[in-house]
Amino acid sequence: MNIDFHYYAVKTIALASGFSEEDAQTIATFSEYVDDYNPGDVGRYNTIPQEIIDKQNSKLILTEEEKREYITAKLMREYNAKHGTYKMPSKQKVDKYFEENGSIVPNFRRISTGFSLSECAKEFCQKTSVAPFHFIAHDSEAANTKEGRFTKPAIIGDDSLISKYLENAKKEYLSSNSTTKKRALMHIGMLLHIFADTYAHAEFSGFNEDCNIAEVSDVKYTKDGSEVPTTDKYIVDYIMQQSGVYGVTKRISAAGHQMVGHLPDYPGVSFTFKFEKPERLVERNNTLIFTEVSMRIFDFLYDIRHEKEGKDSNAAIAQIRQVGAKDTYKYDETNLESIPEGRRNFVKKLITAFSSTPISTFEESWLVTKVVKSVWGKIFGGSDKSPITILKEIWAQVLNIPAESYQYDPSDVFALDDKNIKDENFYYYNSYAEDILMGLYPEDYIQ
Ligand SMILES: [Zn+2]
């Protein structure tokens, strides 16, 4: 999923479930930040909370020799920076340990939850960023077998790893005080990213392997059922994957859903996947699937907030939580009328928002899209607005709030060039991310 879900939909859902503006902003910011946090260089921090130092120090299983390798990697990097000669070691091997007065001292481990397209061709990145934070397997057993590590939609309360982590974060939130509440909400936000991705990325795995070989057909706008023109954004991704270099890309980058571009992440389309191994067709209506996971998140957030803060006097909020007996979260025209009115109206608004989301909602691709548009004709139905402006308008309508309620800037989240980061939550963010790695790959860690 993209920012349209991870930030805009999640903020809307958090507000609708009764969270304050500030708390909803925290949840949504960290739901999106999972995609944007990718520390690119080494860094040593002077303000790490003791709790985090203690937690990290004993956890990673490495021999003295392996620890020395990390130090060598760092020294090599410094040498390279000076002389520009030797091959650079991968950034993940750098700076986990350093030498101080003759002994090996562990450094603070930053965990990249986001990744770039070039990085995800590397297995290390697939194992430690792509799979855990965007294509999470059901549990550690599944994560460690090739056949089991594809993604399937998680349900809160099932025995999936992500559900268990959400239950833990819920407890953390319920017992939080005024100083620890933001951290607990950050934790919930980042876990909701992983949870939501299990819906958009269903059937795919985060590794470069055969189960990800797929083609798409029948791409339609869910709004009116019309076919998506081949000049649209998705086809640019798609052509890149499926064009003359198809054979090459197929071999080196079948990690995640790269073979089908960003199509699985667009809220306003339906399509059919044809998978090769095992051979099968999978039909998808993203608008309804994104609505389903939205309502699962709504119910979760509503329940934890009300458990912590008591009954809400706002009747409209409570009405959305009224689940009818027939509510299976699978919404379509045939069953929508059977769910209670307050909830039904909210579900309908979500469907409208998702189905009217333009295909390309990346701010940075907007200029490219404008150029493409001038060559190939209209893409956004003649609109000249930036995708972010469109998203703000779409989501502001759901709750009837000002478009300015939606503000997200990753550079505001933590000041990453600062060695003395003032916001303790930076360290907790990395530590929570490492918890996911520990849960998926227990053999790499001392439990
Ligand atoms: Zn993701």
Explain what you see.
The protein has 447 residues and is mainly alpha-helical. Among the domains are: 61-106, no CATH class; 210-285 and 363-387, no CATH class. Helix content is 49%, strand content 6%. It contains 18 helices and 5 strands. The chain has helices at 3-16, 21-36, 50-57, 64-83, 123-134, 140-143, 161-174, 181-200, 233-242, 246-252, 286-309, 315-321, 333-336, 341-355, 366-376, 387-399, 410-413, 425-440; strands spanning 97-100, 103-106, 214-221, 269-275, 280-285. The strands form 2 sheets. It has a 3-stranded antiparallel beta sheet. Helix 1 (3-16) packs parallel to helix 16. The longest helix has 24 residues, at 286-309. 41% of the residues are buried. It binds zinc ion.
